[in-house]
Design a protein that fits this description.
- The structure is a single chain.
- Helices cover 59% and strands 4% of the residues.
- By secondary structure, the protein is mainly α.
- It folds into 3 domains: 46 residues, no CATH class; 41 residues; 34 residues, no CATH class.
- Helix 1 crosses helix 3 and helix 2 packs across helix 3.
- The protein is rod-shaped, with a radius of gyration of 34 Å.
- Bound molecules: zinc ion (ZN).
Length: 144
């Protein structure tokens, strides 16, 4: 039975254990198809060894570090924003529970619109249905 492509590659790279290597040597010597595959793999390795790839002259370290710091900042901002929203929700709930049951309109005070309430809480309203924290995130950075 002929060896797999992976075995031929490991054989050519000298990565096979001695026993397996001996068996493959015998097989390759007797099987013209595998001998051709083995020699083609050796030729490829030789060409790759001769390939001189110039090293990059650009130092990417500052860009990578900036992105890591930015990601860490966003995670912190999400945690803080979530805490603020939670605390606001608790505060609003407490206010609703303990507030006197007199509507602002009955006190001649203007009733805030949903938009004004959202602005007061630091939230933005989208179509009156969805609230988002656009002050914290630019559009491409909003969490999924
Ligand atoms: Zn073979």
């Amino acid at each position: 039975m002929c060896p797999s492509e992976s075995e031929i590659i490991r054989f050519a790279a000298g990565e096979l254990p001695d026993e397996q290597r001996t068996l493959l040597l015998i097989h390759v010597d007797q099987c013209p198809d595998c001998k051709r595959r083995y020699e083609a793999t050796l030729a490829t390795f030789s060409a790759l060894a001769d390939w001189d790839v110039p090293a990059s002259t650009r130092d990417c370290t500052p860009v990578i570090l900036a992105r890591v710091r930015r990601a860490a900042f966003i995670r912190t901002a999400v945690a803080v924003a979530a805490s603020i929203v939670l605390a606001s929700s608790v505060g609003i709930s407490a206010a609703l529970i303990t507030a006197p049951r007199v509507a602002p309109i009955a006190q001649n005070r203007p009733v805030p619109t949903d938009q004004q309430a959202a602005l007061t809480l630091g939230l933005d309203s989208f179509d009156g249905e969805t609230l988002g924290l656009s002050a914290v995130f630019s559009p491409e950075e909003q969490p999924q």
